[in-house]
Amino acid sequence: LERLKLVIRDIFQLIVFISSTLHKIWHPNFQFYSDAEAGTDFYEKFSIRRNIQVIFQCLWNETYYRSVMIYLARACGPEFIRFINMVINDATFLLDESLAALKKIHDVELVMANKDEWAALEREEQQQRESILEDAKRQVRSWLIYAKDTLELLGYLTRDAPQPFAQDVLGDRLASMLNHNIAQLCGRKCMELKVRDAAERFQWEPRKLVGQVVDVYLNLAAFSDTFAEFIAHDEVSNNHIVRGSALEILSHESTPFVPDPVMDTLMEDPVRLPSGHIMDRKHIMRHLLSSQTNPFNRATLTEEELEPEWIGSRPLGRKHNC
């Protein structure tokens, strides 16, 4: 197998460095990526495009081809704009399908874990839910692989060739897609995406996916203020609180994807109560201003009994105001 890999690599190197291909290899791939939209089965196109993405990644690692791609991107020709539009379409669909499948898995497995609730269902209802679960498990593996690869493509394009994304035709759509998915991954309902043994079963690593989305934000923010305007124009999903939650997740400042049990918001400063419950400090402190009791068992509770519940160390300079 290793010998075969070496042979394939040598053949690839031979092909891409033939003088006649040096200036011509990108355009057919752009065209093929776009043409897959109409010339193939809807689901088959994602498999084809993933193979093209692998080629792109290999070419991107070669200095000459990367420089040609950056030149084409900066020129913002119609062929390249169409290609990028298809990439954004794919990222939107693949992320939506991945997160929808994860939610189905979460919902069904949550009911199945409650033996009494599961036993109370009619056998036909159980079979329907089992069918939904199996379909979702089968689909999510593929969708997540395709989604992560497509985000990786967007990542290195926005890092090294951000010019096309400053255009109205692409900028608005990309900003809306990023905002929508950050809201799904880090918003109030993020716990609905939590499933058992996620990485082992489905290669589902939410922090890494959040990191890929945030990388695209940062790449375009470093290029121009224009993209910030596109983000602000998105009235549906634009939410600075959700982006703050994303930063919390990436910086390990709080327990990842664990909401406050009372307010259902991502905890910024988790503390443990004597009863063992964990709450965000600001919410329990607000409760204690009205009542010196534990909201879970009504036992007497004071601020001094709250213990910090951190995975890592607290960032320097972060203090509590009385």
UniProtKB/TrEMBL annotation:
It is found in: Cytoplasm; Nucleus. Pathway: Protein modification; protein ubiquitination. Pfam families: U-box, Ufd2P_core. Its main location: cytoplasm. SMART domains: Ubox (SM00504). Keywords: Cytoplasm, Nucleus, Transferase, Ubl conjugation pathway. The keyword rRNA processing does not apply. Residues 253-322 form the U-box domain. One of its GO terms (biological process) is protein polyubiquitination. The keyword Cell membrane does not apply. GO terms for cellular component: cytoplasm; nucleus; ubiquitin ligase complex. InterPro entries: Ub_conjug_fac_E4_core, UBE4, Ubox_domain, Znf_RING/FYVE/PHD. It comes from the Eukaryota. GO terms for molecular function: ubiquitin-ubiquitin ligase activity. Belongs to the ubiquitin conjugation factor E4 family. This is U-box domain-containing protein.
